[in-house]
Amino acid sequence: MIYLLILVISVYVFLMIFFWMGFKKVPKSNENSSDAKLSFSIVVPFRNETENLPILLKSIENLNFPIENFEVILVDDESIEKFQVSSFKFQVQMIANQRQSTSPKKDAIQTAILHSKFEWIITTDADCIVPENWLLDLNNYIQNTKKEMVCGPVFFKNKSGFLFDFQQIEMISLQAVTIGSFDFDLGFMCNGANFAYSKKFFQQLNGFEGNEKIASGDDVFLLQKAVKNFPAEVGFLPKKDFKVITNPAENWSELFQQRIRWAGKSKAYSSGFGKLVAMTVFLANLAFILSLILIVFGFFEMIILLLIKVISDLMLANQTARFYQIKIKNTLLTALVYPFFSSTVAFYSLFGKYEWKGRSFKS
């Protein structure tokens, strides 16, 4: 058994080094500006977001980009709390979601695309804040690289307490894995809060066809389809100030429900590499727990194995945190708690249900 645990942790550490190397190789600058300007339709699906939407719209109002070159489409997904759109300098419209599947968010995006008047779609969430040069950086990147799909980083707003520190470290690690995989044309994760693609490319991929029965995954399934068929058309923009900021979960119950939703998507991955990573992470977390148990029974040599895993995790997370200038705290406590939390989420996601925006979905 000990040899099996060593094998699992070894494969996991190799993957972390793989992502660490990929992160270092991805170009981190986007200095070449372009005089030509693309036009963007910013799509925001929402449900009961009366407190968050004004903050998002204010950050959009502060964008350093010609107002005639973008519009905002708010897609109301059966909100109980009705939101009234104020007057803005930029073009903004609010439409009702047209439900066609068991995935409210995919339906909302498709509804918005039908109403959009610009060629480029960029999605974000209602509880986000977008950076000032969001569209400008995206425009320059697309003009310079000719990509048809662009992913960007998402991090949490600064808050205090272990729950927030735990989520921030996890998100930083996810972003590190995301960026590291792109250099090898193996991208399998992205975040719909900072995700752009041309309508032509969306149609070429047949949109969300094939994943309509899964409630979430408007981002990762579309990305994996693109990487599988047209890897050269997909890119990640890892510029320091291109990051979108979102709200962390307010309590452990909310976090647990959110992570079940995230974990449930891995069962339907079309990316073989993505499935391999998900399985390796799951087994490595179980190996971590079993190693702790063995230490209690006197197998103190397992401490070295645990240290190797923790060091590889911190190496990857610290690299990403330094680049995006994000402070992380409670790293060791998170390293101890995370395997238990992640393993519980993984097991529950196989059979359980989760709550999302006041509705229940099958994982």
Could you write a compact summary of the structure shown?
With 363 residues, the chain is of the alpha/beta class. It has eleven helices and twelve strands. The radius of gyration is 20 Å and the shape is globular.
User: Runs with pLDDT <50, length 5+?
Assistant: none
Count up the helices.
11
Number of strands: 12
Order of helices and strands: HEHEEHEEHEEHEHHEEHHHHEE
Structural class: alpha/beta
Q: How much of the residues is beta strand, in percent?
A: 5-15%
Strand order of the largest sheet: 3-2-1-4-8-6-9
Mean pLDDT: 91
| Head-to-tail CA distance between termini | 31 Å
* Rg (C-alpha, Å): 20 Å
- Helical proportion, percent range: 40-55%
Envelope shape: globular
Give your account of this protein's structure.
The structure is a single chain. The chain has 363 residues and is an alpha/beta fold. The chain is 49% helix and 14% strand. The chain contains 11 helices and 12 strands. The strands form 3 sheets. Strands 3-2-1-4-8-6-9 form a 7-stranded mixed beta sheet, with helices on both faces. Helix 2 links the parallel strand 1 (40-46) and strand 2. The longest helix is centred in the last third of the chain and has 25 residues, at 272-296. The mean pLDDT is 91.
